């Protein structure tokens, strides 16, 4: 069985993945409910979790099972799966938290691993040294070193999936080194010592810790975050690439008489209206739950809390698939001041997200003011700062963002009567942007409050009229400027993606612009009537096979390239998917979603693929896709225009 996680889809660090275990795959992000090993201590049975909610993995305490003689005997004779009556994957913890609470436990690190393996645990956890956020640097370093030594010993004893805790207290340097060691020694890097932050709602203080861990983690280790029990935290954790969440909150809050919601917690006694109509509430509406006998009420609340948690995990999964996880995080942050403080802190750590920030998403919806500090905006400004001015020494005209369609562009002069170029700067929510680039992600699909504050048609007419009035004395306003704008927009898009020199080389092929008959927006760049580059709603030109050959000729290795290992060359040439184990990075500037030239060791062009992984990740994942082929020699080209 291949170890590690298989990446299926992603949104930045967040990912949909699969972890193979002896008892079936775990589809991530996944919620692992904490299950007490004693049946009489389970408000919700593991079998019900599996059958009714589709939960495929749980976590239970190996230490408690070992501590109680009757449970230990059953584990040794029957295994954890028969003890719990759960057919899916079982992760076992080690007793570190009990050791932290009680000062010591009788179980040694080696005995802990051996017992977990003897019971058939699918994912065994190293007995680490729990480190409080208030620990000194010396204490945290000693604990992290001990944990690393124990992990190395456990790795030698355990051939199965191993979770290695990441300790280090509140010290980023220690957390980063611990994360690197954990992801090298185990299949799962389990971020520990964080429960005190969760219990006191100090999520903003946790952000530097998660940023440091993220910098140290190596692919393809899966990431587990201990104690992330409340559903309002799942999107926040997934943003950092957390794959596995454990939760005892569904049961703990039920014992207190509290109902978990995606945006907070409410006492069941305060629920007077039927606020939920799920299948559980069809049996017993929430306003009636408060009146149930104590044990029945706890059971009903625990079930409902668990259902709510599972639903939130699926919302997170959907957001990752749709590329809207940042929006979900921001919506959840509005629900609690502590999460909003964490959101503000995340913006200060944008560099952590930039290496995996995709080149585009379907849309960019503004939720809160902090939306304008997302990594997508930071990356856009970084690229804009590196980009040469396409119209140097130009007269500058500022105007609101207008659609780049013939009716608008034909009325906007690109130069004065003396040949001086005019540089139009569109005012956007992210600042002034060259008008020719105003349809590139994230500016193009940016939806803000201002976008809907006035009628679009009137706003555009006024903007064009104002610009023409400014230029009346120096420009020919009667000329059709559409063709000039075609050339400017074409050059701007090519230069944005591959640089000025490459843009000039590509334009020597007499590229022509084709616009959508329906919307008037630029859709393809053509050579001799055939599409060379297709431009989608994201505003990014994607090469067809013909365009790929042009781009390959206009660039030198390693630009825009991913090298394909010899064993995979025949398959990629035929248009088959490129898998990670057969791919190696050439151009370090590529990122998820980039269209890359896939070449062999002699730089012969094989295909064009849209990347799933970053250059740093290529070849590191032993399973999963590196790039989906979008064009190759034997695939007929499509126009892409409507």
What can you tell me about this protein's structure?
The protein is of the alpha/beta class and 642 residues long. The chain folds into 3 domains: 5-356, TIM Barrel (Alpha-Beta Barrel); 387-492, no CATH class; 509-632, Archaeosine Trna-guanine Transglycosylase, Chain: A, domain 4 (Roll), CATH 2.30.130. Strands 4-5-6-7-8-9-10-11 form an 8-stranded parallel barrel, surrounded by 4 helices. A hairpin with a 2-residue loop joins strand 12 (258-261) and strand 13 (264-267). The protein is globular and about 90 Å long. Residues 638-642 have low confidence and may be disordered.
Strand arrangement across the biggest beta sheet: 4-5-6-7-8-9-10-11
* Number of separate strands: 28
Strand content: 15-25%
| Total of helices | 25
Write the SSE topology.
Elements: E1 5-11, E2 14-19, E3 26-28, E4 30-35, H1 46-53, E5 57-61, H2 62-67, H3 69-78, H4 80-84, E6 89-93, H5 96-102, H6 109-118, E7 123-125, H7 137-157, E8 161-166, H8 172-185, E9 188-191, H9 195-199, H10 203-216, E10 222-225, H11 234-239, E11 244-247, H12 249-255, E12 258-261, E13 264-267, H13 279-283, H14 286-289, H15 294-322, H16 325-334, H17 337-347, H18 350-353, E14 364-365, H19 375-386, E15 395-400, H20 406-409, E16 422-428, E17 431-434, E18 446-447, H21 456-471, H22 482-498, H23 500-507, E19 512-515, E20 522-527, E21 530-535, E22 541-543, H24 545-554, E23 561-564, H25 569-573, E24 578-579, E25 583-585, E26 595-599, E27 605-611, E28 625-632
Parallel strand pairs: 4-5, 4-11, 5-6, 6-7, 7-8, 8-9, 9-10, 10-11, 14-18, 15-16, 23-26
Antiparallel strand pairs: 1-2, 2-3, 12-13, 16-17, 19-20, 20-21, 21-22, 23-25, 24-28, 26-27, 27-28
Helix pairs in contact: 6-7, 7-8, 8-10, 10-17, 12-15, 15-16, 16-17, 22-23
């Amino acid at each position: 069985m291949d170890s590690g996680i298989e990446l299926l889809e992603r949104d930045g660090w967040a990912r949909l993945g699969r972890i193979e275990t002896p008892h079936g795959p775990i589809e991530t992000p996944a919620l692992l409910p904490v299950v007490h090993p004693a049946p009489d201590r389970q408000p919700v049975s593991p079998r019900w979790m599996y059958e009714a909610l589709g939960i495929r993995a749980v976590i239970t305490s190996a230490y408690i099972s070992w501590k109680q003689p009757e449970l230990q005997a059953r584990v040794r004779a029957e295994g954890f799966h028969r003890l719990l009556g759960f057919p899916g994957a079982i992760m076992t913890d080690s007793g570190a938290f009990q050791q932290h609470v009680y000062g010591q436990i009788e179980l040694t690190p080696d005995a802990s691993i051996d017992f977990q393996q003897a019971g058939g645990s699918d994912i065994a956890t190293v007995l680490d040294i729990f480190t409080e956020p208030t620990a000194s640097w010396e204490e945290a370093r000693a604990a992290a070193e001990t944990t690393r030594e124990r992990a190395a010993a456990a790795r030698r004893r355990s051939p199965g999936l191993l979770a290695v805790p990441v300790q280090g207290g509140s010290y980023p340097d220690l957390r980063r080194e611990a994360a690197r060691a954990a992801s090298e020694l185990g299949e799962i890097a389990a971020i520990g010592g964080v429960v005190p932050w969760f219990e006191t709602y100090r999520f903003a203080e946790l952000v530097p810790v998660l940023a440091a861990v993220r910098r140290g983690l190596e692919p393809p280790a899966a990431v587990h975050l201990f104690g992330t029990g409340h559903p309002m935290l799942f999107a926040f954790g997934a943003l950092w690439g957390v794959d596995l969440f454990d939760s005892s909150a569904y049961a703990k809050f039920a014992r207190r008489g509290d109902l978990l919601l995606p945006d907070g917690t409410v006492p069941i006694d305060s629920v007077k209206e039927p606020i939920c109509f799920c299948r559980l509430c069809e049996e017993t509406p929430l306003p009636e739950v408060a009146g149930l006998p104590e044990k029945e009420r706890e059971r009903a609340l625990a079930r409902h809390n668990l259902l709510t948690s599972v639903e939130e995990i699926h919302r997170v999964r959907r957001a990752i698939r749709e590329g809207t996880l940042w929006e979900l995080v921001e919506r959840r942050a509005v629900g609690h001041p502590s999460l909003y403080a964490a959101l503000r802190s995340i913006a200060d750590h944008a560099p952590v997200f930039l290496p995996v920030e995709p080149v585009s998403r379907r849309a960019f919806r503004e939720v809160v003011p902090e939306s304008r500090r997302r990594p997508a905006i930071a990356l856009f400004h970084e690229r804009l700062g590196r980009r040469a001015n396409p119209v140097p020494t130009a007269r500058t005209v500022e105007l609101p963002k207008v659609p780049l369609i013939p009716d608008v562009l034909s009325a906007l002069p690109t130069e004065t009567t003396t040949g001086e170029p005019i540089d139009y700067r569109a005012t956007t929510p992210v600042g002034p942007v060259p008008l020719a680039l105003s349809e590139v992600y994230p500016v193009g699909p940016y939806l803000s409050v201002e976008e809907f504050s006035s009628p679009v048609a009137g706003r555009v007419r006024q903007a064009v009229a104002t610009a023409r009035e400014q230029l009346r004395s120096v420009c020919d306003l009667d000329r059709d400027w559409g063709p000039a704008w075609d050339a400017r927009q074409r050059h701007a898009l090519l230069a944005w993606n591959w640089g000025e020199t490459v843009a000039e080389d590509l334009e020597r092929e007499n590229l022509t612009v084709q616009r959508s008959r329906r919307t008037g927006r630029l859709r393809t760049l053509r050579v001799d009537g055939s599409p060379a580059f297709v431009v989608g709603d994201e505003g990014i030109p994607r090469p067809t096979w013909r365009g790929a050959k042009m781009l390959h000729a206009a660039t030198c290795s390693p630009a825009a390239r991913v090298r394909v290992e010899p064993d995979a060359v025949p398959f990629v040439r035929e248009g088959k998917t490129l898998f990670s184990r057969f791919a190696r990075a050439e151009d370090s500037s590529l990122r998820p979603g980039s269209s890359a030239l896939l070449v062999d060791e002699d730089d012969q062009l094989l295909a064009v693929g849209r990347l799933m992984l970053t250059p740093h990740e290529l070849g590191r994942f032993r399973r999963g896709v590196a790039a989906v082929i979008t064009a190759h020699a034997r695939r007929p080209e499509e126009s892409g225009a409507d």
